[in-house]
Amino acid sequence: MTQQAEAARRPPLSRDRVLRAGVALADEAGIDSLSMRKLAQELGVVPMALYKHVANKEQLLDGMVDVVVGEIEPPDPGSDWKGAVRRRILSARRALIGHPWAAQVIQSRPRPTPVVLAYMDSVIGMFRTGGFSVDLTHHVMHALGSRMLGFTQELFDASPGPEPDAPAPASAGDAGQYPYVAELAGAVAHEEGSVVGGGCDDQFEFEFSLDLLLDGFERLRRQGWTSARRPQETSEAQEAQETTG
Amino acid sequence: MTQQAEAARRPPLSRDRVLRAGVALADEAGIDSLSMRKLAQELGVVPMALYKHVANKEQLLDGMVDVVVGEIEPPDPGSDWKGAVRRRILSARRALIGHPWAAQVIQSRPRPTPVVLAYMDSVIGMFRTGGFSVDLTHHVMHALGSRMLGFTQELFDASPGPEPDAPAPASAGDAGQYPYVAELAGAVAHEEGSVVGGGCDDQFEFEFSLDLLLDGFERLRRQGWTSARRPQETSEAQEAQETTG
DNA sequence: ACCTGAACACCGTTCAAGT
DNA sequence: ACCTGAACACCGTTCAAGT
């Protein structure tokens, strides 16, 4: 009765509503809290009702990834390849940051969804129309890796877990055992503009390595790099050039 | 009776034996098949017996990561920083490749174990003794990210899953929808030396982007880069130099 | 024909009962 | 004091029974 009344008040279930509820639940409660059962409860529906709109949990996660990737802004044409790629990737980063679970879920997918494939296709196109050979574009895409979607795999899960006030990764007590880590941690803690608590400026780090790669790509493109010449040889030849220049 | 006889035959349980059995089980059956219950069964022991040697499953996974990281060869002194770092990272890569689950597990850990911290400390040391400032070393470590431990996060799980003969990521049917992906896939399929099945040469891709980064690091080091000057400005200044040179 | 509750085959971990 | 079986609170998904 009450159940029926509630069902009548809510809009009918649809794949889209299921996916958006999944995204909302993962945003709020974390990806570990996302279960078919909890999602059904959130939607005021019996668990099995979900299976009419998604084949299983894997397909639910696929669809949720599509929602996030759908938030990435389209490429803006009419600028140099580097600026265009840079802007697009930083837009992807903004989308991913809004959904902290997304990076992990994307990497757990056994294959890209059509929406992700379309995004990758358009990024590849930006390199190709920017004057990159098929060969170089291929390796460049591998070098970008997950950075293409706006995230780098931090070595350890930096997401705010269930232990909010845990000791810092490199606490003072470990300074003796890990002198170089301590030196770095100390410098970061005193850095201007760093977040309270001694954290790193993730955006700066992201742009630092993104620009390092993009600059490297541009250098290779100008040299007409092909996979016949290994990058190491390339760099050595270039180092010689720089030294003499 | 039979149980007791079996228990008597086996060496007594220890933390080390539990960890090694966990590594072996994950190697053989995949990380998804690793459960406390199955691991106990593998050791001929009741599930609760494991909890005397590891506090919980999280600590089991931590210990398993330590086993893998322990396989990385120590640094060999007395060579230039780039060669030393390169060799060490490629050694880490060999260790990680032997345990396909390790990359995923490392990234799921909320914080580095002491063994991983010690490895990171020694890598930081290779940069510092190689002439890198604390500042630059910090950003360089971020840029390396998971590559430091020998793996890059491939955008999608390339590990041999439960569907061994599934269609290729970009099958011919999708060529029309994703023209640039198709172009790349076609080129890779015809590449010399590529594995049968059209896969990429992962080792080449890894070294390509590793060398791209290491070369970039060396360039910044020589320029005396500090975080006051952004990489982009650096590169633009350098581009002007290169163009005029 | 459609929907759904109970059931199945798992988890990690707690806890009290047994030796 | 030590060990461990049963139990708890969950999963994703199957399937047969109900409407």
TrEMBL record, chains A, B:
Entries under Gene3D superfamilies matching the protein: Homeodomain-like (1.10.10.60), Tetracycline Repressor, domain 2 (1.10.357.10)
Which domain of life does the UniProt lineage start with? Answer: Bacteria
Question: Could you tell me the keywords of this UniProt record?
Answer: DNA-binding, Repressor, Transcription, Transcription regulation
Q: Where is region (Disordered) located?
A: 155-174, 225-245
The record, for InterPro entries, names: Homeodomain-like_sf, HTH-type_TetR-like_transc_reg, HTH_TetR, Repressor_TetR_C, Tet_transcr_reg_TetR, Tet_transcr_reg_TetR-rel_C_sf
Write out the GO MF terms.
DNA-binding transcription factor activity; transcription cis-regulatory region binding
Q: What residues does the HTH tetR-type domain cover?
A: 12-72
Q: What is this protein called?
A: TetR family transcriptional regulator
Taxonomic source organism: Streptomyces agglomeratus
